[in-house]
């Protein structure tokens, strides 16, 4: 009798085709490892993401970074404060809009980013260890395409429309148990209506 891991692999499981389950497993594994690699980094994983977004030239303002990363602007301000503390970034007024602040990455910030990037590459290699190098490159390219496409739309609107298209129509109410428009309701209101007529006579 065969038992153990081989039996589990042979057993059909609807979760094997569930995109949310697969993404969740990979995401949780990455987050755990990334948090460990960035445990002493200013702002943690979010601080690293902000530094990654800010490191590309030309310098961008805080609003553009917040929109790209999907971070609330108030939260982003605190994260940039954390990065500014050790001298990883510096803020300056935007010449095109004095009310806006541009975020510049310093030499110290670039050095710190490169060190943590190497550590995260090792995390990614471990997480994708089941894939051949060519498969890993293909997965990255496909995920990048999906991520850019998802970022270009309003998920609260477009994804809800997709759900509405595939959701089955609600079942009609059972006879005699409907809402205010059911056929039985006028009969329930009839005694009260008769009582009002007797009172007016």
Automatic annotation (TrEMBL):
Transmembrane segments: none annotated. PROSITE patterns: HTH_MARR_2. Residues 182-193 have a biased composition (Low complexity). One of its GO terms (molecular function) is DNA-binding transcription factor activity. One of its GO terms (biological process) is response to stress. It comes from the Bacteria. Residues 167-201 are annotated as: Disordered. This is MarR family transcriptional regulator. It comes from Micromonospora acroterricola. InterPro entries: HTH_MarR-typ, MarR/SlyA-like, WH-like_DNA-bd_sf, WH_DNA-bd_sf. Residues 16-148 form the HTH marR-type domain. PANTHER family: HTH-TYPE TRANSCRIPTIONAL REPRESSOR YETL (PTHR33164:SF43), TRANSCRIPTIONAL REGULATOR, MARR FAMILY (PTHR33164).
């Amino acid at each position: 009798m065969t038992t153990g891991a081989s039996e589990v692999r042979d057993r059909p499981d609807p979760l094997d085709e569930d995109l949310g389950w697969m993404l969740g497993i990979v995401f949780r594994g990455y987050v755990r490892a990334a948090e460990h690699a960035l445990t002493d980094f200013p702002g943690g994983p979010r601080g690293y993401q902000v530094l990654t977004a800010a490191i590309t030239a030309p310098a961008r303002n805080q609003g553009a970074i917040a929109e790209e990363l999907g971070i609330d602007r108030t939260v982003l301000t605190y994260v940039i404060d954390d990065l500014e503390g050790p001298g990883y970034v510096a803020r300056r007024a935007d010449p095109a809009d004095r009310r806006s602040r541009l975020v510049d990455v310093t030499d110290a910030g670039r050095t710190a980013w490169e060190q943590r990037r190497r550590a995260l590459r090792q995390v990614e290699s471990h997480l994708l260890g089941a894939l051949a190098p060519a498969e890993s490159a293909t997965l990255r390219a496909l995920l990048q395409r999906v991520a850019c496409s998802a970022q270009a739309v309003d998920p609260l609107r477009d994804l809800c429309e997709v759900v509405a298209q595939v959701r089955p129509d609600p079942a009609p109410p059972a006879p005699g148990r409907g809402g205010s428009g059911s056929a039985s309701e006028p009969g329930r209101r009839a005694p009260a209506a008769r009582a009002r007529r007797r009172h007016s006579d």
